[in-house]
Specification:
Elements: H1 2-17, H2 21-41, H3 47-74, H4 87-104, H5 113-132, H6 136-156, H7 163-191
Helix pairs in contact: 1-2, 1-5, 1-6, 2-3, 2-6, 3-7, 4-5, 5-6
Length: 204
Amino acid sequence: MSPAVAVLVALGFGVIVVRRRSLATGLVALQGLVLGVAALTLEGGDSGAMAVAGAILIVRAAAIPLLLVLARRRTPERTLVAPTTSVATRLLLAAAVVLVAVAATPPLGLGDRAAEHGAVALLCLGILTVAVRRPAVLQVLGVLVAENGVYLLAIAVPGGVPAVVELGVLVDLVLVVTIATAFAGKIHERVGSGDTDLLRGLRD
């Protein structure tokens, strides 16, 4: 799974670097697709469970970005939201955080250190995306990147995670994304932009 893990982490770095919401959405969708294919092609364990996991991940890779695309169309930005940090700063910060977190995380007992490291990296990249990106949609994408790290751990668990749990997580995630996109729409309606920094100027 090592090549797939490398691709997943590279896409996570891409989300924290790119400026356009459409491009970041595409990167997260591709992440989900790679996860789904990795689950379908994973050797060992319960092949039936992995097939279900792969199918769920592939459906998720299409459905959730579609919700975000619809949200973007309802909240067009007149200009790109200017990031508070440069691309180089975000990239260096992300690399430093990931390296420290991976070095500090003990073995999790999955037998696949690459998957463990990749999951930790995706969790850190997702949290950091939420922290440093200003557009609400990009913050939602950060949550999805972190959640992809959790899914990576799930498919790396020997035997996989029960399908009912995966379906439950998928339903919960769709609800969370739906609520988050509705919230982003309200922000845009109120301040004319999805820039969450503008909320600081609101007063009762």
